[in-house]
Design goal:
alpha/beta; two-stranded antiparallel ribbon; about 15% strand; globular; binds zinc ion
């Protein structure tokens, strides 16, 4: 079976203004690279239109209404200090959510074996009722709730290897025994959360905070604890918050992962998915702000998804 690549041109309409690190080119360089490589093992799909009902499994209605009314007719507006929106941000925001739904349905329908969503804005800092850190709606959390509600799963694992703590995802699932959230991140750092003391009501949150300067070897050693916990949980489906900003070239953080580390950690996650959930893995882009590192790292991540069998 092939790998799904879910993306939409609307990502390119989400203009965050001059000099903003969460820029249009982030998705276009990833997508252009995959177009150029023309790998026949990828199935390209556009996101489905997402219903309010699906978003409201995760976000409060007042917040969804606020988001919908916030997109400006022209120029820029902001949902928080870092989260800038423009007229084209509306379609990009809803397509980012739609991408994970399309990816999940595609895996469940056996249209493809696993999938990567190359979309923006990212989502993991967004909470039930707030935007934060470039994130508007929490796509991965909406995906997890969709798996619980539509496909009646009871054990969803979310692995977040973005260099920043996925505080929005943690908040959304803090009291949810059906979702295990595992995050590796630079700590102390933005957004300030993510200590190992934050464990969730059911011990379903597992934070692995790591200091600035963490290198490949140190990170991969820490990642063994991610894999151990994942095995103990026995997930029925695995979602990945794939941020590539722990790369050594990333300007927004101080880890020094190499491009190939993303291939390695993806392979390790997939090995576990094979044991417990028939390889059902859906990944979605979060951060990653050095364009070249993002392009190469996302390619190695997808290489691992493609090679898995
Ligand atoms: Zn990040």
């Amino acid at each position: 079976m092939k790998t799904g690549l879910i993306t939409s041109d609307t990502s390119q309409n989400h203009d965050t203004g001059p000099g903003h690190p969460e820029q249009i080119a982030r998705v276009s360089i990833i997508v252009d690279n995959f177009k150029k490589l023309n790998n026949k093992n990828l199935i390209w799909k556009k996101p489905s239109k997402v219903s309010d009902e699906i978003i409201l499994t995760t976000h409060e209605i007042n917040y969804l209404n606020l988001v919908k009314s916030s997109f400006p007719k022209n120029g820029f507006s902001s949902l928080d200090g870092d989260t800038i929106i423009s007229p084209g941000s509306r379609d990009a925001t809803f397509d980012a959510v739609g991408s994970i739904i399309t990816a999940i349905d595609g895996v469940e329908n056996r249209e493809f074996k696993n999938a990567f969503c190359a979309v923006r804005p990212p989502g993991h800092h967004s909470g039930q009722n707030k935007a934060a850190g470039f994130c508007i709606l929490n796509s991965i959390s909406i995906g997890a709730n969709y798996l619980l509600e539509k496909y009646k799963y009871n054990k969803i694992a979310i692995i977040d290897f973005d260099v920043h703590h996925g505080n929005g995802t943690q908040d959304i699932f803090y009291d949810d025994k059906n979702v295990l959230f595992i995050s590796t991140h630079q700590y102390p750092y933005y957004p300030g959360t993510g200590s190992e003391k934050e464990k969730g009501k059911y011990n379903n949150i597992y934070n692995i905070p790591l200091p600035a300067g963490t290198n490949s070897e140190e990170y991969l050693n820490a990642f063994e604890f991610v894999l151990k916990r994942l095995k103990e949980f026995k997930p029925e489906f695995i979602l990945i918050s794939a941020g590539f900003d722990a790369h050594e070239d990333d300007p927004l953080a101080q880890f020094s992962l190499k491009t190939n580390d993303y291939y390695h950690i993806t392979k390790r996650i997939l090995e576990i998915s094979k044991i417990f959930c028939k390889g059902k893995v859906v990944s979605i882009l979060e951060g990653g702000y050095d364009l070249k590192a993002l392009q190469d790292s996302s390619k190695r991540h997808v290489d691992a998804l493609i090679e898995f069998n």
